[in-house]
Amino acid sequence: MPPVAPRPPARSSDGLGWSLVPLLSVGFGAPASFLYAGVRRRSVALGGAAVGYGAAVTFEFAAFLAGGGAAALGLLVMALTWTISAAHALAARPRVYPPDNVRDRMNRRVVEMARQRRGLREAARKIVLDDPGLARELRIGRPDLLPRPFDDGGLIDVNHVPPEVLSRLPGLTYAMVDRIMGLRTEQGGFVSAEEMALHADLPPSIVSEIAEYALFVR
């Protein structure tokens, strides 16, 4: 199956909306805004700012309810809270929403695709276990057989593929492939990467990598 062209990586939020909350809410939204930021970044300082702005907003409401001179003081505190929290949010925006660049997005996309391929391999292995006949029809683990529309995530059936396909398994040298092919002919195949490594004298360091892609259909 032809590889699917990667989609353009999605951009993460730049935090502009978050940074405007205190300004647009006349400061009343600052406590919730900074509480969210503190949780998002696991920041005690941002959480402390949320508490401070919350205390200021609470004082404002209490002063307005009291009326008289207290109301005037509350209005002053509201103006200060509005101004300070709006400036604070704009200044904290790069910390709360670190700038994202193309390389970061591409790296996330590569990781996403690798996980998707792993999921395809797991699904294909399940088909081999549950329905061997269907697995043969889908040519799972047989990139040497075409056409092959089913995407198995890059599995290789060690017991049946030709040597040039077997050499695609990570870490295998031509000498190792020759040993594996000879043993396969003698004993009719293998049942696991560990057994193959033991009989073919493969380095232990490559067994886990081989097991990720190898399939052993008897």
UniProtKB/TrEMBL annotation:
This is Helix-hairpin-helix protein. Keywords: Membrane, Transmembrane, Transmembrane helix. InterPro entries: RuvA_2-like. It comes from Actinoallomurus bryophytorum. It holds the Pfam family HHH_3. The chain crosses the membrane at residues 16-37, 44-65, 71-91.
